[in-house]
Automatic annotation (TrEMBL):
Pfam families reported for this sequence: PqqD
Gene3D superfamilies, per the entry: Coenzyme PQQ synthesis protein D (PqqD)
Name of the protein in question: PqqD family peptide modification chaperone
Protein origin, superkingdom: Bacteria
Organism the protein comes from: Pontixanthobacter luteolus
Length: 93
């Protein structure tokens, strides 16, 4: 699925996660794979509470970080697309 600013995303329930000193570590129970996110990736992961639109994640990031809305949208859609491809999240149109 192509990720847009209006795409709704939610976490895969089979993914365990924990904050670590330099970001966040995740483990996909189903595949047994581990992942590590930096601070920004961890912030995006935390923003995915329930079902949330990518545009709402971006609004929070723009308010929190020194980033313009266009760059934030592009980078966040790309990252969320990677999460989707890895099976760490589910998307809804």
């Amino acid at each position: 699925m192509t990720i847009s600013i209006d795409t709704l995303v939610e976490r895969n329930e089979d993914v365990l996660f924990s904050d670590v000193a330099d970001g966040m570590s995740l483990m996909d129970i189903e595949s047994g794979k581990y992942f590590h996110f930096d601070e920004t990736g961890a912030r995006i992961w935390k923003a995915i509470e329930g079902s949330v639109a990518v545009k709402d994640i971006c609004a929070g990031l723009v308010a929190e970080y020194d980033v313009d809305a266009e760059t934030c949208s592009k980078d966040t859609m790309e990252f969320v697309g990677e999460l989707d491809a890895l099976g760490l999240i589910q998307t809804k149109s």
